[in-house]
């Protein structure tokens, strides 16, 4: 049985078209209530130099001491921030630039070509402009493209863009490299939980994991103080590798009631823990809220690769991490069931994973 909705509740308007047609105002559909707007931070303002941890993954192969200290940094990042950047991660910087710039070219194609890939909420694959199907919802200032890499049964080149000509090849290679890197990070995350290196991957379903890509396109916005490029949310999946725009910041991460604007390091990936790893780790690792702000001068492109558990197996706290002192915080649920929530309701902070917590 599938509860997946079949269609959008109202006609889709591309934010890119709205951006091109409005000069100093934005339509009411994109205006957030005052409490959600970018400048309304609670608490004190952190200095502009605040940033998420940056971890250098290079040079650990033959140096066990350096390795141990880097793994400790990753542990701390996963428990305290839910976010970190990695550099010297082994993915070719040229491939990273090529992937991002090829996607940028896609978003600059004529609208008729992009519309051929228009998506529906049934699978979300293709060119989209909203998340959630609530009629009349206030929308985010972004368009996106969503596609599957894994499992191979869901990978469908016909649902990928046909243009620019090199894109399918570039995106294939990008996906392959990032899946490898995720596999490497999963081992570190598993070891850091005091478990054998393969246990976390096994809990994801071993080889049968899911991987998808969401490319975000944030057009220029004449009133950035009134809206958000992407509303506050935690990622529902396992782990995310984000390739941010190299020119334009925008991602903000929640830390102690403040929003920290991430300053991307050159050719870094931003790694974050998703809800499924929070659940599997019994909340030792944190899936942290984040959002995106937009600006009036520059568009922004980012690539979020989601590394997810096999979608039809129950995900619950790993038995090695459940003790009498620390009982299981979450009941089992498959990722297929779990992701329906964001697909129906759109991004809503951490409300979903919080609501899962078993009452006690
Ligand atoms: C996402 C996301 C952040 C960004 O796609 O889930 O959080 O910087 N993107 O675009
Ligand atoms: Ni996200």
Your description of this structure?
This protein has 360 residues and is an alpha+beta fold. It has one domain (26-355): B-lactam Antibiotic, Isopenicillin N Synthase, Chain (Jelly Rolls). The protein contains nine helices and 14 strands. It has helices at 15-21, 64-80, 93-107, 111-115, 167-192, 199-203, 275-280, 335-345, 351-356; strands at 54-56, 83-87, 126-128, 143-150, 210-218, 230-233, 239-243, 251-255, 258-261, 269-273, 290-292, 300-308, 314-315, 333-334. The strands form three sheets. It has an eight-stranded mixed β-sheet. It has a four-stranded antiparallel β-sheet with strand order 6-11-8-9, with no helix packed on it. Strands 13-14 form a two-stranded antiparallel sheet. α3 packs across α5 (167-192). The longest helix is centred in the middle third of the chain and has 26 residues, at 167-192. The radius of gyration is 20 Å and the shape is globular. 39% of the residues are buried. The mean pLDDT is 94.
Number of helices: 9
- Which percent range describes the beta-strand content? 15-25%
The name of the CATH topology is: Jelly Rolls
Mean pLDDT: 94
CATH superfamily descriptor? B-lactam Antibiotic, Isopenicillin N Synthase, Chain
| Uncertain residue ranges | none
Instruction: State the share of residues found in helices, binned by percent.
Output: 25-40%
Order of strands across the biggest sheet? Answer: 1-2-10-7-12-5-4-3
Number of folding domains? 1
Q: Radius of gyration, rounded?
A: 20 Å
The total of beta strands comes to 14
Bound molecules: N-oxalylglycine, nickel (II) ion
Looking at the structure, what is the overall shape?
A: globular
CATH class: Mainly Beta
Note the main sheet.
Answer: 8 strands, mixed
CATH architecture: Sandwich
Secondary-structure element pattern, one letter each: HEHEHHEEHHEEEEEEHEEEEHH
Structural class: alpha+beta
Distance between the termini: 31 Å
């Amino acid at each position: 049985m599938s509860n997946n909705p079949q269609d959008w509740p109202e006609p889709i308007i591309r934010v890119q078209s709205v951006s091109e047609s409005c000069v100093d105002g934005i339509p009411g559909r994109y205006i957030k209530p005052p409490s959600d707007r970018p400048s309304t931070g609670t608490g004190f303002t952190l200095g502009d130099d605040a940033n998420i941890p940056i971890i250098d993954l290079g040079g650990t192969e033959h140096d066990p001491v350096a390795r141990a200290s880097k793994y400790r940094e990753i542990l701390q990042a996963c428990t305290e921030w839910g976010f970190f950047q990695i550099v010297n991660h082994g993915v070719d910087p040229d491939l990273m630039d090529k992937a991002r710039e090829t996607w940028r070219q896609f978003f600059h194609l004529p609208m008729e070509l992009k519309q051929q890939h228009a998506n529906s909420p049934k699978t979300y694959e293709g060119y989209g402009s909203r998340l959630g199907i609530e009629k009349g919802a206030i929308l985010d200032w972004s368009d996106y493209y969503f596609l599957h890499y894994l499992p191979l049964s869901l990978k469908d080149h016909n649902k990928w863009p046909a243009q620019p000509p090199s894109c399918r090849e570039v995106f294939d290679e990008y996906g392959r490299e990032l899946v490898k890197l995720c596999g490497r990070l999963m081992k570190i995350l598993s070891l850091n939980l005091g478990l054998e290196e393969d246990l976390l991957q096994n809990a994801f379903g071993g080889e049968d994991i899911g991987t998808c890509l969401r490319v975000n396109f944030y057009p220029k916005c004449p009133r950035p103080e009134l809206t958000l490029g992407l509303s506050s949310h935690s990622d529902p999946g396992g782990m995310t590798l984000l390739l941010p725009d190299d020119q334009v910041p925008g991602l903000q991460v929640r830390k102690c009631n403040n929003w920290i604007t991430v300053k991307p390091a050159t050719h870094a990936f931003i790694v974050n823990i998703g809800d499924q790893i929070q659940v599997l780790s019994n909340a030792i690792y944190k899936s942290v809220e984040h959002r995106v702000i937009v600006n009036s001068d520059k568009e922004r492109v980012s690539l979020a690769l989601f590394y997810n558990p096999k979608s039809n197996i129950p995900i619950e706290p790993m038995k090695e991490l459940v003790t009498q002192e620390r009982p299981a915080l979450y009941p089992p649920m498959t990722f297929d069931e779990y992701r329906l929530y964001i697909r129906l309701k759109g991004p809503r902070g951490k409300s979903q994973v919080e609501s899962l917590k078993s009452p006690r």
